[in-house]
Write a structure and sequence with these properties.
By secondary structure, the chain is of the alpha+beta class. It has two domains: 2-139, Arc Repressor Mutant, subunit A, CATH 1.10.10; 152-284, Beta-Lactamase, CATH 3.30.450. The protein has helices spanning 7-25, 34-45, 86-103, 127-139, 142-149, 155-165, 169-179, 201-205; strands at 51-56, 62-68, 75-79, 110-113, 183-190, 193-199, 232-240, 253-261, 266-273. A hairpin with a 4-residue loop joins strand 8 (253-261) and strand 9. Helix 2 (34-45) runs parallel beside helix 3 (86-103), helix 3 (86-103) packs across helix 4 (127-139) and helix 6 (155-165) packs across helix 7 (169-179). The chain binds zinc ion. Zinc ion (ZN) is lined by residues 95, 99, 110, 112, 128, 131.
C-alpha cells in the first residue's frame, strides 16, 4: 500500500532509480527530467493509474495542478509556465509529482497556489509541505548536494548547485540551510524590509533568526543589504555581527553576501556567522 509512502521514501526510491539509470547508460544525472519521470512513476511503483499527460497551462493564480480522468485510471499534471523560470517550473512539476505519489488516495484534485512555492509555512502534517519536501529531495539529493558544497558556504557554491540541479537559488539555499551544520541565515527583502527569513538549525539555536513573519522588520542601515551601491557580492564581505544582531559581542564579525533575485523582484542576503558564536541577549542564553 502506498499509504506508507513518505516524501523521503518516495524521493529516495526515485533517486536510486535515476542514479542507476545514469550509471548504466552513462547519461547526465542532473537536472532531473521530471516530465519523463512523472510519466514513468506508476510503472516504477507498480501502479495501474499512471500520469499520462504533463502539460503547460497559462492559468492565472496557480503554479501547478494534478487531476484524474473520470474513472481515475489516468492523471494529468499541469504547470504554469507564464513568466516562470525553468527552475520554478521544475520545482512545481516535482511538487505535483509528490502529490501524485503521496496524496492521490486522500484527495481527488490538487491545485497549488501562486505562493512562493519553495517557502511555505512548514507544518509536517500539511500535504503542501510534504510535496515541497519531496520535490527538494528529488531534485537536490542530500548526499550529492553536500558533496558539491564541500565545506563551501556562500552564494558562489549555492549558485553552482542551483545551476547543477536546475532550480532557483532560493530553493537551493533553503535546501542547504536545512542540512548544513554552519550558522547561516537567508534574508529575502524588498525596499528595505524583510519579506521572510530562514535560519539553519545551528544559527537559530544561537539566537541568529528574525521573526519576520510576525512583525515588520527593517533591513539594518549599515548592512551590505541596505547599501544600494552594491547589487552583487557572492562570496561575502566581513561586517560587524552587531549590525544584524544587536546582542552580538564586540569584535564578532560575520560574512554578508548579497544577490538580486530578479525572478521574485527581491534581494537575497546570506549571513554566515562563525561556528559556535552566540548572538542571544546574555540573560537569554540557555546553555
Ligand atoms: Zn501542492
Amino acid at each position: 500500500m502506498n499509504n506508507a509512502l513518505t516524501s523521503a521514501k518516495a524521493a529516495y526510491k526515485l533517486t536510486h532509480i535515476l542514479d542507476l539509470y545514469s550509471q548504466v547508460h552513462g547519461t547526465r544525472r542532473f537536472p532531473v527530467d521530471v516530465v519523463e519521470l512523472a510519466k514513468d512513476a506508476a510503472n516504477q511503483f507498480g501502479w495501474s493509474d499512471p500520469i499520462t499527460q504533463v502539460e503547460a497551462a497559462d492559468i492565472k493564480g496557480f503554479e501547478g495542478a494534478l487531476f484524474p480522468n473520470d474513472d481515475k485510471s489516468a492523471w494529468c499534471l499541469l504547470y504554469n509556465n507564464a513568466m516562470k523560470s525553468p527552475g520554478r517550473i521544475r520545482f512545481t512539476q516535482a511538487h505535483e509529482l509528490g502529490h501524485y505519489l503521496l496524496h492521490r488516495q486522500q484527495q481527488a484534485i490538487f491545485q497549488c497556489g501562486e505562493d512562493d512555492v519553495v517557502n511555505r509555512e512548514e507544518s509536517e502534517i500539511s500535504t503542501e509541505a510534504q510535496a515541497d519536501s519531496f520535490a527538494a529531495a528529488l531534485l537536490m539529493p542530500r548526499n550529492d548536494f553536500m558533496a558539491q558544497m564541500d565545506g563551501c558556504a556562500d552564494f558562489e557554491g549555492l549558485s553552482a548547485c542551483a545551476e547543477r540541479y536546475g532550480v532557483s537559488l532560493t530553493a537551493a539555499t533553503l535546501r542547504w540551510l536545512k542540512h548544513t551544520d554552519r550558522q547561516a541565515v537567508l534574508v529575502v527583502h524588498r525596499d528595505g524590509y524583510m519579506n521572510w527569513a530562514f535560519s539553519s538549525q545551528a544559527a537559530a539555536r544561537n539566537g541568529a533568526f528574525f521573526p519576520s513573519r510576525r512583525q515588520l522588520m527593517a533591513i539594518p542601515e549599515k548592512s551590505l543589504a541596505a547599501d544600494e551601491s552594491v547589487s552583487l557580492d557572492r562570496s561575502g564581505t566581513e561586517i560587524a555581527a552587531s549590525t544584524w544582531f544587536p546582542h552580538a559581542r564586540d569584535g564578532l564579525s560575520l560574512q554578508e553576501m548579497k544577490i538580486a533575485a530578479n525572478e521574485y523582484d527581491t534581494v537575497m542576503t546570506l549571513l554566515l556567522l562563525p561556528r559556535g558564536a552566540s548572538v542571544w541577549q546574555p540573560w537569554e542564553n540557555q546553555d
